[in-house]
Amino acid sequence: MIHLVYTGSSSACFELENTQPYYAPEPYTVWLDGEERLRGDTNIFSLFDLKPSTQYFLTIRRDSGRESMMQFRTAAETCCVSVKDFGATGDGVREDTGAIQAAISFLPAGSRLYFPPGTYLTLPLALKSHITLELAEGAVILGSTDRDRYPIVPGVASDTDGDGEIPLAGFEGNEMPSYQSLLQASYAEDISIVGRGRIDGNGENGDWWTDFESFPAARPRVLFFNRCRNVNIHGVTVCNGPSWHIHPFFSQNISIFHCFITAPKVSPNTDGFNPESCDGVNVIGCRFSTGDDCIAIKSGKIEMGRKYRKPASRHIIRNCLMEFGHGAVTLGSELAGGVRDLSVTQCWFRATDRGLRIKSRRGRGRDCVVTHVQFDNIRMERVLTPIVINMWYNCCDPDRFTEYVWSREKLPVDERTPVMGAFAFRNMVCTDAEVAACYIDGLPESPIEEVILENIRVSFAKDARPGIPAMQNFAEERCRLGFYLDNVQKIRIRHANLEGAEGGNLLAEHYDNLITEGFEVD
Questions:
Q1: Which of the residues 292, 293, 397, 432 is marked catalytic?
Q2: What is the largest CA-CA distance in the chain?
Q3: Cβ count near 298 (within 10 Å)
């Protein structure tokens, strides 16, 4: 069967129903109204250059001869206008900021702003509600490298007519001044960014990746959405961010479909997609290759967590490919508002440092409760450590090297103590791991409630090299470590297989209950 997962006025995204991670069981051809449009081999495919308010007939012909068909209708719009009508040159030399911003500001609600092929050099742009930006194949929105001309947005602004604050910007779990992001929206709704073009943060050509620790404000993201709702990003490539690429912040109903988010592996903190304290997030059919975590789900550090008590909730990640990042799908470490209702399914991880990665630490707070989280049907290749839960994370905080963070003593439970609930890892095949199959390390005063490992197969590379499975103080290098679990109340291992582990298949300490079935424990 075929499912329509997104439709706009000029593009649509589809998903093939099967159980294979990311790649389709067999290649196929897509026909639209009797005309061949594309060849595909992934579970997600997209169509572009469609007409608004138009009914289409779609046929999928698999190489085996099987066919699937469906009808769909594109959305309506008020108008479509080229950005060149406002004076944009698209020559990559002259700056197009004024022309693009004027077009965004003056077009009516429900309009589509079209970028023909070309390179549109620009300073940061402010988006508004009820608008679509479409980037044609060959169109590039390119961020300027002139940092002095990037406005600095305050973390919060004071209400001069009252006692309140207006939250505007944040980074790494705190409300803080930030350089305006290349495309930024606040308190807006119904925004779409679609097409086969590219949004390029141009991070490698400025000083964004070299001197950022001395900057007066946090680095910009490529796309930043503050307290927005109903945002759809479809098809575009987002690349070379000054820092994170896509950062929804306290927003609702944010979806990215069939996008490619990429930056060099050596680029600093260039996470792919970091929804923070958001509700209703969909990441479907996307490909990531970044210099840090591919996807990092966040809900703030302790001050912001206490202030808003806004968890990351109702997130779906499906049919995605992650490559070369520090972690493929990460929770944290900024989790002070908690995480609930997360589903990660049918994904393929390739050559990331860690696969499914959960990281927290003392100091995230009692509102840091992670619950109703499931990971299912995952394929990993050359992932150094496929599964990590680390409650001793030692990065990104001034006190990260203090005894409070690293002490293995059972400290008193207080308002700073995080809570990790139940986690289920099911139906995973991991080949050529190197460091550890599974590294799960809870706090003695706040052990992880439950870990389920079911239908897990891990084989180690013959040329595996030692490494650090989790970022902790005084961490030891490991190599071909099996299932390691410490400070977990309940451990359930069912139908697991390890090939090439050294020093035993299971190393478990400080648990209350351990059940194994179909798993050989040395």
A1: 292
A2: 71
A3: 29
Tell me which residue of 462, 513, 520 sits closest to 492, measured CA to CA: 513
Task: Note whether 59 and 385 are within 8 A (CB).
Answer: no
Tokens of 206: 């400025």
pLDDT digits (tens, 9 = 90+) for 419-474: 999 999 999 999 999 999 999 999 999 999 999 999 999 999 999 999 999 999 99
Tens digits of per-residue pLDDT, 143-169?
Answer: 999 999 999 999 999 988 877 899 999
Helix (H, G, I), strand (E, B) or coil at 349: strand
Q: Are strands 369-381 and 339-350 parallel, antiparallel or unpaired?
A: parallel
Closest by alpha carbon to 235, among 294, 193, 270?
Answer: 193
Residue 150 is which amino acid?
Y
Question: Domains in the chain, please, with CATH?
Answer: 2-73 (2.60.40.10), 79-292 (2.160.20.10), 332-522 (no CATH)
* 404 backbone dihedrals φ, ψ, rounded to 5°: -55, -40
Amino acid at 397: D
* N- to C-terminal Cα separation, the chain: 45
The number of beta carbons lying within 10 Å of the beta carbon of residue 44 is: 23
Single out the residue of 309, 169, 292 nearest to residue 242, CA to CA. 292
DSSP state of 478: B
Q: How far apart are CA 442 and CA 388, in angstroms?
A: 11
CA 314 from centroid of its chain's CA atoms: 14
Catalytic residue among 247, 326, 397, 432: 326
- Report d(CA 363, CA 404) in Å as an integer: 9
322 has which bridge partners? 288, 349
Active site residue 326: yes
